[in-house]
Each structure stands twice: as C-alpha cells, then as structure tokens.
Amino acid sequence: LAAGVGLADIRTGGELVINGEIPIVTETAAPEHLAGALNTIYSGWVFRTDETRAMQADDFDNPGMLYVEQGIEAFNTAMGTEGNSCASCHENPESLAGVRATYPQWDEAHGEVQTVEMQVIECQTERMGVAEPYGYDSQQMRNMVALIASVGRGQTVNVAMDGPAAEAWELGREIYYTQYGQMELSCAQCHENNYGNLIRADHLSQGQVNGFPTYRLKNANIVSIHNRFRGCIRDTRGEPYAIGSPEFVALELYVASRGNGLTVEGPAVRN
Amino acid sequence: MKRQMLLVAGIALAATSVQADVIAPDDVVMSEYGEVFESLTGAPGDAARGAEIFASRSGGNCLACHAVSALSDQPWHGEVGPVLDGVATRWEEPALRGLLVNADVTFPDSIMPAFYKVSGFTRPGDAFTTRPAPADLQPILEAQQIEDIIAFLMTLTDY
C-alpha cells in the first residue's frame, strides 16, 4: 500500500515565512509514537498550489486575517453580567500565545481534556457570567479561536498525550484507524497511506490540524477542526460524531499529537 | 403516441422481469478467491453506460481513485488505486464482479469501497447527508450498474 504514496508529488523544499518574520516548520521528523507509520510529517501547506501557498505568507493576502480582526474586537468587548472582556483578565491576545500549540489539554478542575473552544466557553460561563456562550462552531467562536491561533504562529506543536490525557488519546487513536461509513474508510487510509496522491481533484495531505482554523477558499470562510472531521466522515457515507463531542475532542487530541514538531500556522489558507 | 405508450409498457415489463432475477446483496455467492460467477441481474451489461457510471461523482466515482486512458476526456483521474488500462487482461469477469461487490475479499482491508454490500458497517450514513443510514440501506451501486461497469472494464484490453 505504501507503494501508492506519490512521494514525487509532495512538493518539499518550499519555505514558509509569514510576513517575512515568522518561520513555519512545514516538514519535520515524525514524533516517536508514529514509528512504523510515518517518518516525516508535513503541514497541509506543502500539498497546496503555489497561489494558495503564497496567500498564507503575508497577512495582507490571507483572507483568514479578517476573521482574526473580528476576534480582536470581541476580545476587547465586555460581555456577560460581570462586565468583563477577555482583556480584563488576559491583558492582550499575545498573552495567550502558548495556547494553540499545547491544546487540547487536560483540565484538572473539570477532569477532562479541553479544546480551545471548551476553554473559551469555560471562561464565558464560569468567569464572565455569559448566559449564552459562543456556540462551539459559531462564527464568533471561530473568530476567537483564529485570533488565539494567530498569536501562536511559529510555536512548536507539543500536545501532551500521556498522564491523565492518555485515555482520551487512546480513544482518538482508535477512531483514527476505524473504517467508517458505507465506504468503510479510515482517516489513516486517506491521510497516512495515501498522502501525496490525488483523490479525484483533491491532493491528499496528512490531515494535520496545525493550520486550524483554516480559511477555505471553497467556503470563503474559516472552518473549525471538528467541522473538517465531520466533513471527512460524511465523505465516507458515514454518520459523523457531533461537533464538540467527546469522540471528536479525543480525535483532535490524537491528530494534534501526530503533528507534534510542526508549528502553529492558523489561520492557514487551504482549498 | 400509441407507439410510444406501447414502448413505455414494454420497458416497464422488461424492468420488472429484470428485477425478478436480481440477486440481493446479502445473497451474492462468492468463491474463496473473491469471484462472483453469476451475473447480478442476468441481463448483459452496457459498456457505454458503465463508462458513465465509472466517471460520475454521484455514481461509482471510480475515477476518484483510478486513472484510465479510455476516459482521458474526463478531468481529474485519481492516484489512490492502480491505473486500469489493460485490466481485462489481468482479471476474468467473475473476479472483476467480485472486486466490485466487495474488494475486501480479494484485497483484505482495501481502501476500495464495497459497492454491493448493505450491512456490517460502522456508523453508516444516509449517503452524504450526515444522517444515520435508513433501515433499508441500499448498496452504493445497483446490480445493473455493476454489470454495466464490468462490461466497460472488459473493454479495457490495451495498455
């Protein structure tokens, strides 16, 4: 099966430096836990056309940055009964620069693995008195998560998969290798065994999440990690898990850990 | 007008008589090597129609994974599966039928979907709607569509 991998089609060697100042690692040695599966991990950027690649190299050309702007505005706007904005406690978005690279992450107080989205909802409901927090996949949430990713660009992805997170990580791994839907396809069959190959008009990547939320030219908007998972399981003629479900949180943790060593690049540009 | 009605009646008749001979997905008999010797419908396949279903995204979408020179007028041939030029010289008809019914028997854990199978799935959906599959889940392709694709594949004798 590995013989099918069109390594010739992986256009390595390109270099991504955002705004001429943030170097991005688009290709590096795979983390140890992938021994036997992958030697090298690649950012989804590697598999895109020159035009799409170029859009991500400069914030003025990256349409995803418009949503980051909206995130900044929301960050500084008071919400909820306590009269706080995010900035009341977090000073500025840059103070959250380490977040994207280390999430999903175990939360001791809640006894669960939390995604960035869950953490935002936690601050809104438990610290700000917001009665109706952002919906998990709402535009406002995607804007805020895009802001938090953008300030973390260039940081090395390093999610913890051991300790209390191990159980969720194992579940995520199991999901990754399960063949879903009437077409009986697993994430691994497309993104581990066939990256580099064309599947009809789509150039398969390794399905990494370091670029999320990604600006998708096809949607003319930014999309969340869980939305992408949902689309991929839908395409197997399957019934996806719900966005924000424990299964997708576990899968996100596992997939993020497959990218340990790459760098945060959200909002990335993808087709 | 009268002639047309007669024709329609004739087609309807033909359709029902074909229907009666269709082997249901769960009743297909497969050899231990993954061959299916009996036609799924008893009716011969139509190669031209088979080529259309092969390429159609809402049909077999075989082109998503397989390139084939015979369809070079179509854009975007996939690279996930082998190029199918000359495939009729590599496989006999019963083996091709078996591959389409359920490729997993010939190639364990194949990425190639089983096109004539209705049970044994994990979280099957109702096509691409994200809703769960209905109780009477239909195979991805109809029996005659599979026979049509086989007829098309049998024309692929050249490399």
How does this structure look, described?
The complex is a heterodimer of chains A (271) and B (159). Chain A is an alpha+beta fold and 271 residues long. In chain A, 33% of the residues lie in helices and 11% in strands. Chain A has ten helices and eleven strands. Chain A has helices spanning 50-56, 64-75, 86-90, 99-102, 116-127, 139-150, 166-176, 187-191, 225-234, 246-257; strands at 16-18, 22-24, 27-29, 40-42, 105-107, 112-114, 198-199, 202-203, 214-216, 221-223, 269-270. The radius of gyration of chain A is 18 Å and the shape is globular. Chain A starts with 15 loop residues before the first strand and ends with a strand. With 159 residues, chain B is mainly alpha-helical. Chain B has helices spanning 2-21, 47-55, 87-90, 93-102, 143-154. Chains A and B meet through strand 7 and helix 9 of A and loops of B.
Keywords:
heterodimer; A: 271 residues; alpha+beta; 3-stranded mixed β-sheet; two-stranded antiparallel sheet; 10 helices; 11% strand; globular; disordered N terminus; B: 159 residues; mainly alpha
Topology:
The complex is a heterodimer of chains A (271) and B (159).
Chain A: E1 16-18, E2 22-24, E3 27-29, E4 40-42, H1 50-56, H2 64-75, H3 86-90, H4 99-102, E5 105-107, E6 112-114, H5 116-127, H6 139-150, H7 166-176, H8 187-191, E7 198-199, E8 202-203, E9 214-216, E10 221-223, H9 225-234, H10 246-257, E11 269-270
Parallel strand pairs in A: 9-11
Antiparallel strand pairs in A: 1-2, 3-4, 5-6, 7-8, 9-10
Helix pairs in contact in A: 2-6, 7-10
Chain B: H1 2-21, H2 47-55, H3 87-90, H4 93-102, H5 143-154
In short:
Chain B: Residues 45-157 form the Cytochrome c domain. The complex is a heterodimer of chains A (271) and B (159). Chain A has helices spanning 50-56, 64-75, 86-90, 99-102, 116-127, 139-150, 166-176, 187-191, 225-234, 246-257, and strands at 16-18, 22-24, 27-29, 40-42, 105-107, 112-114, 198-199, 202-203, 214-216, 221-223, 269-270.
